Amino acid sequence: VLKSFQDQQQENAIKKTKLLQVDELAFHNSTQLQLLDLSGNVLETLHERTLEGLLRLESLNLRDNRLTSLPETIFDTSRIHVLERIDLSGNRFNEIPIHAIQRQLSLFSLKLARNRVVEVFTQDFINNVKELDLSKNPLSENAIRSILGEAKILRSLNLANTNIKTIPRLETPFLKHLNLSDNAIADIKPVMLERTTILENLDISKNRLTDLTNLTNTFKNLSVLQSLDISDNEIKNINKYNFDRLSTLRSLKMANLLNCTRIEKNAFRSLTKLQLLYIYNYPKLGYLDVQGILKNMTNLEILDIEIKDSSVSNEQLSMHIHPYLRELTLRGERLRNILSSSLVGVRGPRLFFSLKNTSVDTIPPALFFPVPRSTKVELNVSGSKFINLSSQLLAALDERGGYVKINGLDNNPINCSCEMKHLWKWLMLSDNKAPIVICGSPNHLAGTLLNNLTEENFLCNRTTLTKSQTTETSSLMKSTTLNPEIIWTVVPTVQSKNNNFNNDRIGKLLKYPSLSRMN
């Protein structure tokens, strides 16, 4: 129980402390407090005088508690003069606490995500709020229609995962940010967003869109749109006209289009200002023209793309025309090889380079050679097929003086056999900067941290060495010996060591007559 709080700091967090109750006048002597975080507790009620004495509160965070209601006068201006933002997400509200909220005319942002709100009975409170988050509430169709049709001064609206099936005409001329993701929307007609002419961010991911035809016409009204997310839809193809009206776009996310079978070569021709592009996980798409997609995107900073080829090089990525690129992620099970020329042209101070869910099992030691030594590189190989890192690669990394950091090795089938000794030593010398490496094999070491093993684990026994050497010698002989003139087999006999030697010699002379002439 919090009974009294007298700290004069501007910010305080009393979160995740299993707080059951906050007494009235608990903040009576905290006139300088501007940011109050009570999230992650078990508060079920608040007293109407709990916030009394606070002059100006920029943010009140009450998310992830057990609140079902608020006292009507808790935010009265006689008790708290100004309250700008309140977060009630993750509580148990069945309705919006309108009577408490509408007393604060200065309230700018209201978050009520992850509650149990079904109906919205009045719009009075919305006239004061410019940022509204009702995501993950089971809203009724009437509630959705009321919010979208009457919230005229909203600047930001989040209705993700609220059971939306159809969109009415939005009467929100000042709206800049709209999130309609994770619903059941099958179509967006131009009339629906006709009045949202200053919309900057639109998220319609995780819906049921199958075609972009109507949406393409809708884009005509969105002349200043900067961010678009159409990921996780049922879109089947993308033609060269779909993005023509989006010349101002800075961010495009179009990942996980599982039904897409075609992306036309010039579909991205007008997106010359793009800074972020996510385009991956297209299981039905036979080929993705990486070079054609990227050729006009000279402002690109973040790229996450699927590679449909078995190898990738600088020819596809053309790093020299992307001087601002700082995050590069390559995906795709078909991708097996990263050529050493891939990063030629990198110039920035930092580069985050990721290989995710690929079939790549090795990295050429010269990969980072063309990268400026002053560039700090972070390499993520999560979900690839690495069983080892070569000693040459580790030496190349050391040469850069710690400017390359590796992550994601724990999600690879690392083989902790005796050949891993060089990697084990490298990890031991890396101190706290060492990546986490978990053994995938052999069976008796599966699940063990490589860092926790001792040098004894990497002593190859004589049998293994002999077998390895025999195999090597055999392979060498096969590759250098002339094709036999006579192919036959001598029936083996059990004799003394000398006889065995003579039999082997006779067999070879018969099999390769040229040897007898040499002797």
UniProtKB/TrEMBL annotation:
Name of this protein: LRRCT domain-containing protein
PANTHER family (alphabetical): IG(IMMUNOGLOBULIN) AND LRR(LEUCINE RICH REPEAT) DOMAINS (PTHR24366), LEUCINE RICH REPEAT CONTAINING 53 (PTHR24366:SF96)
Domain of life: Eukaryota
Source organism of this protein record: Solenopsis invicta (Red imported fire ant)
UniProtKB keywords: Leucine-rich repeat, Repeat
InterPro entries tied to this protein: Leu-rich_rpt (IPR001611), Leu-rich_rpt_typical-subtyp (IPR003591), LRR_dom_sf (IPR032675)
UniProt key word Ligase: no
